[in-house]
Amino acid sequence: MFGAGGGTSSYEEIEHTDLIVLWGSNARAAHPIFFHHLLKGIDNGARMIAIDPRRTESAAWADLWLGLDVGTDIALANAVGREIIAAGLTDDEFIARATTGFDAYAESVEPYTLDHAADLTGVPAEAIRELAHAYAKAPTAQLCWTLGITEHHNASDNVFALIDLALLTGHVGRYGSGLVPIRGQNNVQGGGDMGALPNKLPGFQDVADDGARRRFEDAWGCAVPAEPGWHLSQMFEAMERGDLRALYVIGENPAQSEADGTRARRALDGLDHLVVQDIFFTATAELADVVLPAGAAWAESEGTVTSSERRVQRVRRVVPPPGNARDDIDILVDLARRLGHDWGQPTAEEVWDELRSLSPIHAGMSYRRLEELGGIQWPCRDEEDPGSRFLHGRLWEDPPRGPKAPFTPVEHDPPKDELTDDYPIRLTTGRHLDSYNTGVQSGRYRSPRRTGGTIDLSPEDAASMGLAAGERARVISRRGSVVAPVRIDRSLRPGLAFMAFHYPEDVDTNRLTLDEWDPKSGTAEFKATAVRIEREP
Amino acid sequence: MTGRRTVEVDGTAVAIEPGATILDACRAGGVDVPTLCYLETLTPANACRLCSVEVEGSRTLVPACSRIAEDGMVIRTATDRVRHARRMILEFLAVAVDLTTAPELLEAMAVYGADPSRYGTDDGSPRPDAVVDNDLYVRDLDKCVLCYRCVEACGDDAQHTYAITIADRGAAARVATEFDVALPDSACVFCGNCVAVCPTGALMVKTEFDMRVAGTWHEEAQTVTRTVCGYCGVGCNLDVHVQDGAIVKVTSPFDHDVTAGNLCIKGRFGWTHVRAGVDGA
Amino acid sequence: MDIRLPMAAATVDERRAVDRILGPPTTGWEGGERRRVDGHVATGGHAARARRHLLLPVLHALQDDIGGISDGALGYVCERLTIPPAEAYGVATFYGLLSVSEVSPTVIHLCDDIVCRTSGAKELFTALADAIGPEGSSDGTRTWHRSNCLGQCDAAPAAFVQEAGVGRRVVVRADLDRLAAGPIDGRDPAYAAIGDAVLTARFGAPDPADLDAYRAVGGYRGLRRALEVGPDAVIAIVEAAGLRGRGGAAFPTGRKWRAVADEEATERYVVCNADESEPGTFKDRMLMERDPFSVVEGLTIAGHATGATKGFIYVRGEYPDAEDRLRAAIAAAEAAGYLGDDVLGSGFPFRIEVRRGAGAYICGEETALFESIEGRRGEPRAKPPYPTTVGLFGRPTAVNNVETLAAAVAIVAEVPGAADTKLFCVSGDVDAAGVVEAPFGVTVRELLTVAGSSHPPQAVLFGGAAGRFLAPAEWDVPLGYGPPSPPMGSGAVVAFGPGVDMDDIVQRIAEFFRDESCGQCVPCREGTVRQDETLRRLVAGADERGLLDEIAQVMRDASICGLGQTAAEAVSSAIALGLVGGAR
Ligand SMILES: Cc1cc2nc3c(=O)[nH]c(=O)nc-3n(C[C@H](O)[C@H](O)[C@H](O)COP(=O)(O)O)c2cc1C
Ligand code: SF4
Ligand code: SF4
Ligand code: SF4
Ligand code: FES
User: Which of A189, C297, C312, C330 has its CA 20 to 30 A from that of A285?
Assistant: First the structure.
């Protein structure tokens, strides 16, 4: 958020906030223990408003649920912003002191009247108004989101639209008020922390920042490119163009996890050389020239991970990796040696200490302190620093330290995969509580709750298609088709269908999805596919 | 009221914070008070009464776990009345319940000289079997002391799924799902947060249950290592229990503020992909 | 809340029963038709969960109309009220008058408690078993169960009958014919007074629900005076009169009211405890049936004194006539401006809601009663905090017994003798069982004399099952609050004649506590079972006095609430007096 990529708040704060806005997140299923903290907040009296196309098990907890049409988040957010401005509910002092670009923002949201937004989103104007007033008037408010916001072709714009709301109302940088993206995977945040982003060095230091780059060059004794690299979607385009010929994949299963899976597999197939390092023989590994079996990070190796509240915590070796599998560090060090660089035989702690010497926000996090404090939230700049519960408190100083937070006007841009008479149903995807990603880990324990891959339909659509629960249906998008048993789900309205993506072996949902991706973040549009559903004989 | 308070525990003055319970005061004073239904992370159910102590001026004994200590309270934990109450409660439980997997209670029985045989009620009639209706955890209600912990953990105090309740009343009271349907047909989401708080082994993860049946469960030979769950991005701490090089159970630390001992189904049970654990793979 | 509903669907009739209480569902999300807009907006959350208190009324409606609660019906209830099915099931199974295991058109609850079982109930069991089958079985239309005391000891044996779609009725002086008959006309109330009749003064009124008649004999004078002098003065008057709670705990009523009045809170409640279930006790029923306005007026005065604007009357589920009378009285009082937004033009808003118990003695315990109204299992709470601080819905609450409120009316209205009168329920082996009003200082022997008795009893139980058997010397002790009087309890006096099998009676008392324990705390849940079982051995000749004493002590010392704390009183006193088992 405005610089460093991490949620601004701690889980603890949601227990003590006045209003919880859960936007595009089914945290009850996808982030169950975060949801425990949220439930404590509700028990403590917080109101909750949920924004999601489906009335999910998370949204069922809300005082008010806004069931917007898929891909209309910006229209809704802009209308909320406009209403807050029109009703005189902005935090003018905060805007003046801590932000830039308000006027342009105000102008950009002007067309998004409640009625216009109601037309675009399907949500009654009165409910949008209630969201606006509740958010603006709440003494403290947490605005949380996950993949419902980010798995769109305009993911970054979606996020900006939400940040703008927080800036309008001063709901950031204070205890209990913040912006909370919850990460889908256990170390997405840590990957970002460590610089696994095209434009960042570890600790969110910009590759274009000469001073930062020089420190790394000094430490590593080599040159670090000053230009950003490619993000995932760009890599696939480069593969298709033939500009990217070799790929080293560590702990990912893009053959199944990418949108428009058919296309992704074709691209991987066309590589000159594919190396996959994973704990499983994944579908991607099947395509690889070399497979490097690795230990499970959370149980077979030493190191750290960073959670969605920016908390760095230790993972430890519980059992040795099986068979020929090896620790990721060992593999990398060996690889470097074969490539002519002797890095010695560093332990995880030594690697970490090097990182601490280069990344100021991690500097104070020695292994000893991580152990003692049960994890530390960055920034933690020295060994006296207890870490940071929330970010951007500086915006409340007068004058604020550091750069002001900019408003970013964004426009509604409907999903790329249009609904037509041939493809009349909007398919959205998501997670099941007991499963995870492409199911390679979670598919191996015996969950009594596992439903397998299904096509979930509203009772009305199922009836009009003459489909009963359990019958098989073919789901057809412009890119491919899959067959799945029908599940009837009352949380869906007519015209909206849902599939999880955990069961690619049986029901390869991502054959349907569109890999139209967001130019700023590289995330693909998993959440909005146009489909037609036919009874499978 | 703010400011510290002083109470007397077994003749010794103990300073405590406002809001502290008698149990807190006793512990601060180094006095051991047995508890059963109480758990730091749960609302005191106040049900077992094992923690009863004497408070001067009170007609009845007072449950230490849930009573807020008041300034000047005079507390006695080792009187005949207190010992009698604890002994009787332990006897009552031992008569009604199979305590073989509740070592702490067995220990307390020895300390308080509890003798369940004097009730002469064991008529040798068969005890009910454990209910095995899913692959993740087992319920043996013959071991249930009705401490309410599981119901609280499934409900208001953590999981908010409310899959289980206390049904019926009096001696017939029991932990149940609606209409006693099997767990997979209930609202249960198999987080195992009920299992984690059960003090008697009435709720037990299936791996432990199976190993106990097979006689291969050796807690003394197990190591416990703290790590972080490999699934979603919340960052739940796991305590991984390993025996003979294989994971046998996963729990979460009660004193860690992210989980407070709780996990979801993936964190608690989704570890079988790491080595063919006892569950096979 | 993300609740998961059972698969079965409610029938049309079941939905109708539920909708009778809740009104038809307004959205698809609460079980109604799925409208287009439901796909885009829903409300729920705190407001939906705040409707939990409607659970018991809805379960009653299903029991009344259908004769039981099926899984489909429970699912619909849960959907309507946003309650997880397991929780609703836990609540439904707590209460004796709700059935989740069977749906039966007619359920007969036949009292087999200490009075009825010496007055013909046992013979009736045999007759019913012959006619229908063993207890709990059904002949297709009827089932029958034994019940604890139904509060009709003045006309034993008694039965309570639930007829699905028809109604509930009480059958007194029951026999097979009367059980089969339709509703039986009201009987003559059995009451008498030693000294001034204050609380029983209106018991003879031809129509107790006639407001004008009530006013003609001084009714609502108390409320008018209260509104005149103001809350503080009312509390002072009640304090000065020394009024103590008649529900058993004998707590000074004025002090309770003041405690609630002094709490800083925006909302507070007054509750009338009309769950009278103490074996041998029926005075509250008589008050509600014969003088319902006095209860309504009393609760209004209590509301005014404490600053509450809402009152609840929690009536025992087995008291259909009392409930009807109260509802009628409330409606009449409302129509005449004695209740409503502006009581008698004073600016004081006050309303009363009647809630029905569902067959659980423990719900007479004040905090269990709160739980029950709130739609939960009737499990008592830990005290402190006391109800005056954290009561119904977490607000400061004054709970008062029916008789306490009636006495408060008389005291505030300055009726002569009002501060010095008490209702006793005399029953058992006497000629004319009934309520006897008497001033403090009266003795058990005098009460028995009024009721008429041809022979001296072999035993007298005083204060209900939670009270104790009195030694003959105590029959002459002046009764009151505090020594030398034995604890007043509910004011029940049950006489057992020479022919009565006291082993059987004492055993029945032990069973009563075993059956009525809520099951929450170990000393009571397990202690009452062990007491019952050990007593059985004692009766059979074993010397188990030592063990019974030990059991008694832990129940008294370590139980959460009064039920467990007093569950051994009667048994212990019977042993001490040599009334039972091995000591003879
Ligand atoms: C097990 C048990 C049952 C009780 N039943 C009743 C009852 O039926 N009616 C009643 O007024 N009080 C009953 N009480 C007493 C109430 O808890 C409470 O003290 C009383 O309602 C207060 O009203 P009072 O002060 O006017 O007596 C019972 C108490 C216990 C422990
Ligand atoms: S496993 Fe979880 S959801 Fe199931 S009963 Fe236990 S606590 Fe409740
Ligand atoms: S199952 Fe375990 S946790 Fe639940 S009430 Fe019984 S003993 Fe307590
Ligand atoms: S004493 Fe008995 S009735 Fe009272 S709370 Fe305990 S178990 Fe329930
Ligand atoms: S530990 Fe205090 S009542 Fe159970």
Answer: A189
Written as six digits, the tokens of B128 are 């009910």
The confidence score (pLDDT) of residue C181 equals 80
Chains meeting C at 3+ CB pairs closer than 8 A? A, B
Residues 6+ apart with CB under 8 A from B44: B21, B37, B38, B63, B65, B66, C382
Is the beta carbon of B193 within 6 A of some atom in ligand 2?
A: yes
- From chain C residues 524-583, the ones with a CB under 8 A of any chain B CB are 525-530, 533-534, 537, 547, 550-551, 553-554, 556-560, 565
Q: What tens digit of pLDDT does each residue of A424-463 get?
A: 999 998 888 887 777 777 777 888 888 888 999 999 999 9
Residue B223 belongs to some domain of the structure: yes
The pLDDT of A523-532, averaged and rounded, is: 82
| Widest Cα–Cα separation across chain B | 61
All structural domains of chain A with their residue ranges: 11-181, 188-377, 425-535
Using a CB-CB cut-off of 8 Å, the residues of chain A touching C1 are 60-61
Residues near A64 by beta carbon (within 8 Å), at least 6 away in sequence: A47, A48, A49, A50, A127, A130, A131, A134, C41, C42, C43, C44, C45
- Asked whether the whole model's pTM tops 0.90, one would answer yes
Classify domain C501-584 at the CATH topology level: de novo design (two linked rop proteins) (1.20.1440)
CA C368 to ligand 4 centroid distance, Å? 10
Consecutive H or E run containing B169? none
Q: What is the dihedral of CA C506, C509, C514, C518, to 10 degrees?
A: -160
The fraction of chain C above a pLDDT of 90, given in percent, is 92
At C185, the pLDDT band (50, 70, 90 cuts) reads low
Residue found under tokens 């004040």: C366
The CATH number that domain C106-181 falls under is 3.40.30.10
Q: How many helices (H) and strands (E) does chain B have?
A: 7, 12
Read off the pLDDT band of A130 (50, 70, 90): very high
Provide the pLDDT for residue A7.
85
Per-residue tokens: C38: 């439901």
For helices C292-306 and C221-229, the axis angle rounded to 10 degrees is: 10
Please name the helix (run of DSSP H) or strand (run of DSSP E) that holds residue C293, with its range, or none.
helix C292-306
Report DSSP letters for C31-83, one per residue.
TS---GGGGTEEE-HHHHHGGGGGHHHHHHHHHHHHSS--HHHHHHHHHHHT-
Cα–Cα distance, A338 to A319 (Å, whole number): 28
Comparing A175-184, A489-498, C545-554, which segment has the lowest mean pLDDT?
A: A175-184
User: Does C22 score more than 90 pLDDT?
Assistant: yes
CA torsion C94→C100→C101→C105, rounded to 10°?
120
Kindly state the percentage of chain B with pLDDT values over 70. Answer: 95
The set of residues, in sequence order, having a beta carbon less than 8 Å from that of C448 and lying 6+ positions away, is C426, C430, C457, C460, C475, C493, C495
- B178 contacts in chain C (CB < 8 Å): 6, 71, 74, 85-86, 88-89
Q: What number of other Cβ atoms are within 10 A of residue A486's Cβ?
A: 24
Does the pLDDT value for residue C508 go beyond 50? yes
Q: Are residues B91 and B172 in the same domain?
A: no
Chain C neighbors of B164, CB-CB under 8 A: 86
Average pLDDT, whole number, for chain B?
93
Range(s) for CATH 1.20.1440.230 in chain C? 501-584
**Any CB–CB contact under 8 A between C523 and chain B?**
yes
- N residues, chain B: 281
CA distance A379 to A374: 16
CATH superfamily of A11-181: Dimethylsulfoxide Reductase, domain 2 (3.40.228.10)
What is residue C269's three-state secondary structure? strand
User: Mean pLDDT throughout C317-343?
Assistant: 97
User: What is the fold of A188-377?
Assistant: Rossmann fold (3.40.50)
Tell me the pLDDT band of A521, cut-offs 50, 70 and 90: low
